[in-house]
C-alpha cells in the first residue's frame, strides 16, 4: 500500500507503534499493521480512538497528517 490512507472508523480501536509499523488494536488484540513509510495520511472517523505517544511522534517525524 504505497501512498495509502489509513482510516480508523470503528469505536474503541487504538493505534500504536511497533518496529516501524502502525499497529491497529481492538481491545488489546492486534488486528492489523501497516508500514509507516507506506502511509500518506491517517484518517480518524470514529469518535473514540486511542493513539499512543510513540505513534503520534512517528507520524509527525515523517510528516504524515492526522485528520
Notes on the protein architecture:
By secondary structure, the protein is mostly beta strands. The protein has one domain: Ribosomal Protein L15, Chain: K, domain 2. The chain is 15% helix and 48% strand. It contains 1 helix and 6 strands, in the order E-E-E-E-E-E-H. The strands form 2 sheets. The protein has a 4-stranded mixed beta sheet with strand order 4-3-2-6. A hairpin with a 2-residue loop joins strand 3 and strand 4. The protein is globular and about 25 Å long. The two termini are 19 Å apart. 10% of the residues are buried. The model has no long low-confidence stretch (mean pLDDT 95).
DSSP summary: helix tally: 1
Q: State the CATH superfamily name.
A: CRISPR-associated endonuclease Cas1, N-terminal domain
Major sheet description: 4 strands, mixed
- End-to-end separation in angstroms reads 19 Å
What is the ordering of alpha helices and beta strands?
A: EEEEEEH
How many individual domains?
1
Beta fraction? over 45%
**Class from secondary-structure proportions:** mainly beta
Strand order of the largest sheet: 4-3-2-6
| Helical proportion, percent range | 10-25%
CATH class label = Alpha Beta
Roughly what is the average pLDDT, rounded to an integer?
95
Outline the secondary-structure elements.
Layout: E1 4-8, E2 13-18, E3 21-26, E4 29-35, E5 39-44, E6 50-51, H1 53-62
Parallel strand pairs: 1-5, 2-6
Antiparallel strand pairs: 2-3, 3-4
Amino acid at each position: 500500500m504505497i501512498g495509502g490512507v489509513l482510516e480508523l472508523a470503528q469505536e474503541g480501536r487504538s493505534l500504536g507503534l511497533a518496529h516501524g509499523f502502525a499497529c491497529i488494536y481492538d481491545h488489546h488484540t492486534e488486528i492489523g499493521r501497516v508500514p509507516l513509510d507506506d502511509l500518506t495520511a491517517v484518517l480518524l472517523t470514529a469518535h473514540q480512538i486511542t493513539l499512543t505517544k510513540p505513534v503520534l511522534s512517528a507520524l509527525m517525524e515523517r510528516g504524515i497528517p492526522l485528520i
